[in-house]
Amino acid sequence: MLRRVADDETVENPMIRRVQFHGMLSPETYRRHRWNFMRLHYQFVMANEQRVVYDYFLTVCGPVPLERMARAPRGPLDAIAADGSLIAPADAAGARR
């Protein structure tokens, strides 16, 4: 619902993440589908081949609350380690795996 924001009310700006298809896919897959615009459009709701700041399945089905993933500087990369294990919230700020 839209509403007016009072002058004394603080409002957080939305976090915007730039997601690039060539980062989500292997170079071979990206090369194969780069001119298939509908395939790339649907990539946002398909599994990624590489770890990036956006992952549909981790967002919808993952073990990490959406707010935590959204506020983490690197999204799911700060919540899920490369081996698939969960990074504890206290460790997430310092972990770079």
Write a brief caption for the model.
The protein is an all-alpha fold and 97 residues long. It is 34% helix and 0% strand.
Task: Quickly list its features.
97 residues, mainly alpha, 6 helices, globular
Structure, described:
It is a single chain. The protein has 97 residues and is an all-alpha fold. Among the domains are: 19-50, no CATH class; 62-92, no CATH class. Helix content is 34%, strand content 0%. It contains six helices and no strands. It has helices at residues 21-24, 27-33, 37-42, 56-61, 66-71, 89-92. The longest helix is centred in the first third of the chain and has 7 residues, at 27-33. It is globular. The N and C termini lie far apart (39 Å).
Poorly predicted runs: none
The major pleated sheet works out as: none
Q: What is the helix/strand order?
A: HHHHHH
- In DSSP terms (H or I, runs of 4 or more residues), the helix count works out at 6
Q: Note the overall shape.
A: globular
Number of DSSP strand runs: 0
Mean pLDDT across all residues, rounded?
Answer: 83
Helices and strands: which structural class?
Answer: mainly alpha
Helical content band: 25-40%
Strand content: under 5%
How far the N terminus sits from the C terminus, by CA atoms, comes to: 39 Å
Computed CA radius of gyration, to the nearest angstrom:
16 Å
